[in-house]
Amino acid sequence: MKKALSMLLLMVMTLACLSGAAMADSDKYLGVMLSTNVMSLDTNLATDGESFEVIADCIDGLMQMDATGASIPALAESYDMSEDGLTYTFHLRDAKWSNGTPVTASDFVFAWRRICKEAGEYAYMFGSSVGCVKGAQDIIDGKAEPDTLAVSAPDDKTLVVELESPVSFFASLMYFPTFYPINEAFYSSLEEGTYGTSPETFLSNGAFVLESYTPGTASLTVKKNPDYWDADRVKLAGIKYQVVGSSDNALVAFKTGALNVVTISGNQVASAKKDADLASKLAVTGAGYMWYLTFSQTEKNADGGMLANANLRLAISNAIDRESIVENNVMDGSLATYTAVPPQFAASSTTGADFSEDQMKFVDYCDFNVEKALEYLAKAKEELGKDSFTFTLIYGNNEGEVIIRHLYRDREYEQEMIYLEREFWHDHILTRIPPPYTEDGSLILESLRRRLGAADKTIPAIELDSDLSATMLRYLRLQEQKQQVETQAKTLDTEMQRLKGQMVAKLNGSCMAMGEYGGTQYTISYNPVSRTGITKDNLQKLKLLHPDIYDEYVTVSESRRFSIKAKAADEAA
């Protein structure tokens, strides 16, 4: 789960990306990968990085982030802060929504009151734990009305925000989508629950406008906003987003040109580094995502809220090797982190120092240390009066997927494995008697070939005993089933060849067809392929005409052909 805060942090994502697009190609759409479907473009409902990315393409907030991570003006041309740090006054520039109406300070007042009233998942960023906007926490908790939020619009170009206590990074919060504006008149004209669900129900004031989008689909498109206040700096005609679920598919999409920017991880990063062409297009970019575990501490969870025990949580924390996860599993440039603010994520506006440069002071709670983990576990057992614990872990390969796994210690299985290992030692290692073959058939045949060497047809046939007979009959039954399946496969292959012929005919001499259908982008290719080889007749000619070359380069290897022949016993006699 990608969120902002947690109890147990695992890593910060920096993402290995492949980029092969000309960024200044003003008549082209950039093809960009998303890891999961964009479920909502409503800033009150969106919770994932992909949704926020698209929203930020289309809407500007008061401030934005530059290439160094510093906060710079966006819709706010400038801002003033009172000496006590409790009042911010933002001065808005001339800008307008994609329906032609001007962006005003009231748009921010409406949006902020709305998210606090509805207590959206990220409403806490207005509250006392983060933004400290006066009155926000009471509204979120249902103790006050939205109009008590200490944010006001003295005029269309002035927004005043009052804080309960100074927040040194408040200006930086303004480029988070939760703080973006919404045009109240437009929002109120829509049917309830439809805002941000289509191009017709969504307004932009940013670099791009929504061209095509349906919640939950695997693709969406944004196009350049000609009325954007900074349109001259937008060099693309638009962006086409496509959901790709794995690094394998992402790499294929990049190589075929279906996408221009993709994110990869794991073995695909290593593969790209070995490819000279791909390596030149590989970059590690700061994504600002964190992956972490969130503990349920309620009485409803397994074993009656056992995770409310601090020592049990510390035992789990010290049992996780964060460095190994990012170096050996993710392998995309991600960094292990030990605080809510990961390294290289935020810097001081005055000194430029990494905000989390002192994060290692928490290493005792988060470092991989088996001895500490066992000490905390022993304390947890004593405090909770339990000898073992069962956990249910909910996770996903991406934010659109949830998988449930149960993690537990199976002591009966442990004892069984100990018994089997001891038995193997006594029955096969000490006695030097090979165990029966249970491995993959190809592995068995290769092992036998190496042990037995070349075929010797002088060795007499062995007797067909009951064990070998049973194995043979099982093989023949499977052979019959395989033949039936192959017959079906031939029928299917015939039909596929017919359809293939129809598609090639419709290509009309072209080698490729591309397009989107049903929310998925498809590419049909019929490219020429050249292969080198030698026919049997030419091989014989080579042997006759150039025996020296033939002997030097042609090798002969031996293999055995396995077969079973059956006939009535009286015929055999």
Keywords:
Dipeptide-binding Protein, domain 1, 573 residues, four-stranded antiparallel sheet, 19 helices, alpha+beta, Dipeptide-binding Protein, domain 3, extended
Helix content: 25-40%
The main pleated sheet reads as:
4 strands, mixed
Structural class comes to: alpha+beta
Query: What's the overall geometry?
Result: extended
Strand order of the largest sheet: 3-12-11-10
CATH topology (level 3) name of one domain: Dipeptide-binding Protein, domain 1
Low-pLDDT residue intervals, each spanning 5 or more residues: 1-14
Radius of gyration (Å): 33 Å
Report the CATH superfamily of one domain. Dipeptide-binding Protein, Domain 1
CATH architectural label of one domain: Alpha-Beta Complex
Question: Number of helical runs?
Answer: 19
Residue fraction in strands: 15-25%
* CATH classification class of one domain: Alpha Beta
| Beta strands, count | 20
- Mean pLDDT equals 82
Distance between the termini: 72 Å
Structure characterization notes:
The protein is α+β, with helices and mostly antiparallel strands and 573 residues long. Among the domains are: 36-243, Dipeptide-binding Protein, Domain 1 (Dipeptide-binding Protein, domain 1, Alpha-Beta Complex), CATH 3.90.76.10; 291-411, Dipeptide-binding Protein, domain 3. 34% of the residues lie in helices and 17% in strands. It has 19 helices and 20 strands. The chain has helices at residues 49-58, 105-118, 136-140, 170-173, 184-188, 247-255, 267-274, 276-279, 302-305, 310-318, 322-330, 363-366, 370-384, 411-429, 441-452, 466-507, 536-545, 547-553, 569-572, and strands spanning 8-13, 16-19, 29-34, 63-65, 71-73, 76-81, 87-92, 151-155, 158-162, 208-212, 219-224, 238-243, 261-264, 282-284, 289-293, 335-336, 391-395, 403-407, 512-517, 520-525. The strands form 7 sheets. The chain has a 4-stranded mixed β-sheet with strand order 3-12-11-10, with helices on one face. Strands 6-7-9-8 form a 4-stranded antiparallel β-sheet, covered by helices on one side. Strand 8 (151-155) and strand 9 (158-162) form a beta hairpin. Helix 10 runs antiparallel to helix 13 and helix 17 (536-545) crosses helix 18. The longest helix is centred in the C-terminal third of the chain and has 42 residues, at 466-507. It is extended, with a radius of gyration of 33 Å. The protein starts with 7 loop residues before the first strand and ends with a helix.
